[in-house]
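ZP: hey, is the DAU complex queued? I don't see it on the tracker
AM: it wasn't, my bad. submitting now with these inputs:
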Amino acid sequence: MKIIVTGGAGFIGGNFVYYELKNHPEDEIICLDKLTYAGNLETLEDAMKNPKFKFVKADIADREAVYKLFEEEKPDIVVNFAAESHVDRSIENPEIFLQTNIMGTQVLMDACRKYGITRYHQVSTDEVYGDLPLDRPDLFFTEETPIHTSSPYSSSKAGADLLVLAYYRTYKLPVSITRCSNNYGPYHFPEKLIPLIISRALADEPLPVYGKGENVRDWLYVEDHCAAIDLVMRKGRVGEVYNIGGHNEKSNLEVVKTILKQLQKPESLITYVTDRPGHDMRYAIDPTKIHNELGWLPQTKFEDGIKQTIDWYLTHKEWWQNILSGDYQNYFDKMYGERLD
Ligand code: NAD
Ligand code: DAU
């Protein structure tokens, strides 16, 4: 089988490339990635040594480049991780989110229609459901929860999801969608909460916590997400949406304090900053469908996963320090400059 993995130089896509090479060594993996600020070829350094892996630099919204690749490679499966993925950036500049996340998805699916595939899989997010109140712990997102987005990022992901389902209904394109909760693990870009806190705590720098730190996220170890996507794209029903999550809700403050404890750093580093506009309160996934239909269950407990993640950041300082010494520092100063003064 030949699989195109878009966005494979990013966090989850990179982990997915390694998951596939390890668990399906018979398959060929072609990574298509534009290498935006979030794409990092260092992440794929080991994959590059594998003869079953190939990297192609291109934009998923570049029709000519995408058609050329499909023409040459004739893939069986396309799994689309490529996206602008950071909520705060989408608030600053929504346009590229619509361009990549919606128009890019359209180009990929048009290529799938033109050249023929057995499955187009869209990697989506629980953020398309909006948020849940903190005082209703009995409520969870199911696949039937209405789409109700808060940020330009989540709106662009929801727009893409609707387009994917429309291509199924109208053109019978064999699609599937997964909507996952917050991931954590190796290769997570240090603009996101967990790697940001780890890297800044190690440098004894103030740790920006939005609002009161009460917002809740449902954390899942990235390898569990990869296993779920692998199952759905190979065995999931066509035209279906599957939610992915491990019932692991934590407030941001709990997460930050857990990291500080493990690193033996003081809680006095925590600095409350102005809240994110439109900040979603709580995410919580009901994963019953993927469990019942495909037998998926998360394998990594948060206590173990966060320890492994911290250890990874400690043993791969070069990976994230290279990022922090580049463009990201300009971004950080722009985003947090006034908030941390
Ligand atoms: P990321 O930002 O770490 O990586 C995105 C990758 O896509 C980068 O390698 C980047 O270079 C590439 N890319 C961006 N625009 C592109 C374009 N136009 N053409 C080709 N490549 C492009 O993102 P991530 O956190 O790994 O998320 C991957 C996918 O999973 C996204 O679709 C995201 O919406 C979804 N998702 C993420 C999470 C999470 O917790 N991180 C949870 C659920 C779903
Ligand atoms: O739920 C899935 C989503 O999870 C994915 O679709 C997104 O691509 C991914 O980025 C993530 O979105 P979040 O907005 O939840 O992740 P982020 O790491 O940006 O923030 C996690 C929580 O921490 C959120 O409540 C905001 C808060 N936060 C974040 C940052 C960067 C802070 O308090 N301080 C910070 O500096």
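AM: back. The domain at 2-188+221-246+282-302 is CATH 3.40.50.720 (Rossmann fold).
ZP: great, adding it to the tracker
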